[in-house]
Amino acid sequence: MNQAKQGDTVKIHYTGTLDDGTTFDSSEGREPLEFTLGSGQVIAGFDSAVEGMCLGESKQVSIPPAQAYGERSEEMMQEVPREALPDDIEPTEGMPLQAQTPDGQLINLRVAEVNEETLVLDGNHPLAGQNLNFAIELVALA
Known about the structure:
The chain has two domains: 9-70 and 127-141, Chitinase A, domain 3; 74-122, Thrombin, subunit H. 5% of the residues lie in helices and 40% in strands. It has one helix at residues 44-50, and strands at 9-17, 23-26, 33-36, 58-63, 77-81, 96-100, 106-114, 118-122, 132-141. The strands form two sheets. Strands 1, 2, 3, 4 and 9 form a five-stranded antiparallel sheet that branches.
């Protein structure tokens, strides 16, 4: 039986949960996720988990932060003046924002704290610092 290897295009159904059982993503009710093994399209731990699977195989894996979105970093937290936001935006905790770096790259941020004159913005990925648990089923292999 063929096993998934680097360079193969795979389709998988999955459900991702946190250690507390909260589901953060799932392909349930959607088309399976398609990606090429080793291409960097998915987090490293997910790629490694699928490698070696056979068509129709299911498994459960736990991926540590180092193989997912990394540990949370305080360096990714930044306090900015409220007037740095456009006037038509009323910030609330948890609100997603996008900013542009001096070299033109877009970065995703989240409002972590709202104060009278400042905001604390969090540039960490929302799943940084978390173990990610996946139920995976390989449904196509090419």
